[in-house]
């Protein structure tokens, strides 16, 4: 959309005349030849400028008759939405503040890596490949399951992890969140009970609220959900248990094999379906037990995406489950989104995955994150902020604030100085994490973070 | 993912050894230097080949120790899903058959243009621009509303159509279907009544079924819904009325101003919200009355996308509505999809819209479709198939089969010969369109269509 020199001059001239009412709404623009002569440019430059003005709605073209000033002025451009300082600190708080904050706002509260930590060169190369792709990739709806090539790549990965499923049992979706949402739509009815970890990813609560589910929190330990409490909760016959088993959000803890086994047994005893959202798995130094692999996808539905390691912009998630579940999810995805994943997105993902550089990127990323976790823990210690545990991988540190400080108050004070934090209670169903805070170690590099955090911890808002 | 000559040779060699068990699962691959010497290639070629094999899962790398044959063989590649001949002809029938048919299957039943009719050159140019975009576009989540630049372009377009809304009242979504779905999630509870046109787009029925809504059909006339029947149905206080007012799917008819006015009054009298899905509007020769513009977006929610004219692969839809509705939809979109539209998709759309060629493409497309409508009508007449009306634009002809032929039977017979058709009853809530068929005039070019259709009409399946 860049405007070349002379074309831009012509566009500015016409826009100026319209703005100054030198050209009234509906009035015919100067002839292409006439304006070209008077401005000393070629007729094709004027024609191109008129086409672009028409594309943006400032002028209208009537075939065979010429170009006219638009009949209604464009509406005023409203200022973009700034941080909502008065918004309640609810499960949407962190999402809205981190997604809609100014681009240069430091966001140690957000759930993704800075763009500069992502594999930008492989992405650019994949975009150049996209420009040469066949027309169907650029312009058509894709198949309902998503392109077979990418599903085969995933199937190979799953086989490596001890989960031998064919590509036909993988459904590509617009994101892992969309995959969780489709599963909830398939299996939940309003009022159904769903187990989540306490604490858990705040958006699980927002999502389950959208489904009008009754959410039951199971206390989360350093090795997974508390197995006694899980069994107790499962006996109330919830429909689902929704969890991240590897590098759990927000704590970074990982499910132990022993607890995994007990969870699966309790789920089987009470016919609870488990949704395992494994989006942080590629950040593990060594693979940890997967509920999906232990169970053989009988009652576990496995979900993932590329948003944490490849791109959050290229929307592509996946779900693998029993064949009957996949078939039902396909119909549901067609009904609610038509088609499945965007073929353009799948092409970009496959392009990066098939590029040898991507694995090197992942190796380097894991090392970089290990360093960032250590450094962040040291810096936070200087403010008396201590991690609950040191995770084996990933980018989160789940920390305790000093002297029982109220994390929501600290987050509000920090937001006033333009730093987005993630206070503990947004992750906690029981709201028992008011002195906890989740830090994203990859987002701590900005020099403003520590001074603002230091002041906010010293003087949280009421 | 193309494999260069020598690298590909090395990859083939290693794959061959693994397949022939010359390299057992878990066995160490030859050293890079050793294989390079024996194959007469450079060590960097072998290293690249090993990285690519690791990326596709055929080998594993252990940092500091080398590369190993993968420990589990990849699962067999299942054949892709073919046409489901035995599937019930329900609202999902046409979607599944057209989305999952073989790429070269003629699909006069589908709801989109062939890729070759789409603006492929502007799309390729936009993809090259994407390769040069800033990192955030390639790798970050976007803002919750979607990029401001694209929303400003849309706001200008809306102003042209007499709908002056600021860009802050436009929410970008993953598709128009997703936009309708979000609105339904916001406004509907299971059992709520929803009015649709009879016939209407079959996926509206599938979508409303997913919401467990009670669907009420209002007979559709050549100038819009029958106003008496609409008023009658509205008096039952449905929550929503879901419609395409311009170039209605499947009939191609357009709402008249007089009926638009009566519909709005009846909706106001019974507090019915109207969802106007305007995805075919860019194909109109001249703009027709918009319910959204007449009403000023008080009780009308307007939805659209670029899937019919720019790309169905680049998933991007939009919704404009009252500010409180937009705010609620944003939270719902975050909860169920995290983030909004893919920044990559929005960049591609904005790139094409800002390209002067796109308007020329639209002009040419409208002319081409007018010709295709005429030609298709003539060809169908030779089989006694007649359009219910000749639409002023778009790519659909809604036709009556001769002698009360059963369209589902004709569609089944044609599918057996590899041609996907759209039988009338999938569009009809009351199932009173059994002798109707929707034809997509842009998909009639394949030489197989008319002979297959001729046979299927002569001998429909029972």
From TrEMBL, chains A, B:
Single annotated GO MF: transaminase activity
Domain annotation HTH gntR-type: ranges: 4-72
Keyword vocabulary terms for this entry: Aminotransferase, DNA-binding, Pyridoxal phosphate, Transcription, Transcription regulation, Transferase
The keyword Transcription appears for this protein: yes
Pfam families xrefs: Aminotran_1_2 (PF00155), GntR (PF00392)
InterPro entries in alphabetical order: Aminotransferase_I/II_large, HTH_trans_reg/aminotransferase, PyrdxlP-dep_Trfase, PyrdxlP-dep_Trfase_major, Tscrpt_reg_HTH_GntR, WH-like_DNA-bd_sf, WH_DNA-bd_sf
Annotated Gene3D superfamilies: Type I PLP-dependent aspartate aminotransferase-like (Major domain) (3.40.640.10), Winged helix-like DNA-binding domain superfamily/Winged helix DNA-binding domain (1.10.10.10)
Family membership: In the C-terminal section; belongs to the class-I pyridoxal-phosphate-dependent aminotransferase family.
Protein name: 8-amino-7-oxononanoate synthase
Organism of this sequence: Methylobacterium ajmalii
């Amino acid at each position: 959309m860049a405007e070349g020199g002379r074309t831009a001059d012509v566009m500015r001239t016409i826009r100026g005349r319209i703005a100054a009412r030198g050209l009234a709404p509906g009035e015919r623009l100067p002839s292409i030849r006439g304006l070209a002569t008077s401005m000393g440019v070629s007729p094709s430059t004027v024609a191109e400028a008129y086409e672009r003005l028409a594309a943006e709605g400032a002028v209208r073209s009537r075939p065979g008759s010429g170009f006219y000033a638009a009949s209604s002025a464009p509406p005023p451009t409203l200022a973009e939405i700034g941080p909502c300082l008065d918004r309640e600190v609810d499960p949407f708080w962190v999402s809205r503040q981190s997604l809609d904050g100014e681009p240069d706002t430091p966001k140690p509260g957000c759930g993704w890596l800075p763009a500069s930590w992502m594999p930008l060169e492989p992405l650019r190369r994949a975009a150049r490949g996209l420009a040469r792709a066949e027309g169907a990739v650029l312009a058509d709806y894709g198949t309902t399951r998503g392109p077979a090539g990418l599903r085969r790549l995933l199937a190979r990965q799953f086989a490596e992890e001890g989960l031998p499923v064919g590509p036909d049992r993988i459904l590509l979706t617009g994101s892992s969140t969309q995959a969780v949402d489709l599963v909830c739509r398939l299996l939940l009815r309003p009022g159904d009970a769903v187990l989540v970890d306490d604490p858990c990813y705040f958006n699980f609560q927002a999502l389950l609220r959208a489904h009008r589910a009754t959410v039951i929190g199971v206390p989360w330990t350093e090795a997974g959900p508390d197995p006694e409490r899980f069994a107790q909760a499962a006996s109330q016959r919830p429909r689902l248990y929704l969890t991240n088993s590897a590098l759990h959000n927000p704590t970074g803890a990982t499910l132990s094999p022993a607890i995994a086994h007990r969870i699966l047994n309790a789920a089987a005893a009470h016919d609870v379906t488990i949704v395992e959202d494994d989006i942080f798995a590629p950040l593990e130094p060594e693979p940890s037990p997967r509920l999906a692999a232990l169970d053989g996808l009988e009652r576990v539905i496995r979900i993932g995406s590329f948003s944490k390691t490849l791109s959050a912009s290229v929307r592509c998630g996946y779900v693998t489950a029993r064949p009957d579940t996949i078939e039902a999810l396909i119909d549901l995805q067609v009904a609610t989104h038509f088609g499945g994943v965007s073929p353009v997105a799948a092409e970009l993902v496959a392009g990066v995955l098939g590029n040898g550089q991507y694995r090197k990127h992942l190796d380097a990323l894991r090392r970089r994150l290990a360093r960032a976790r250590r450094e962040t823990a040291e810096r936070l210690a200087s403010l008396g902020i201590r991690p609950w545990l040191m995770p084996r991988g990933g980018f989160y540190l789940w920390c305790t604030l000093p002297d029982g400080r109220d994390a929501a108050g600290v987050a509000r004070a920090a937001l006033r100085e333009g730093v987005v934090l993630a206070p503990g209670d947004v992750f906690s169903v029981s709201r028992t994490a008011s002195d906890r805070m989740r830090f994203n170690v990859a987002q701590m590099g900005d020099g403003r973070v520590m001074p603002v955090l230091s002041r906010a911890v010293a003087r949280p808002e009421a």
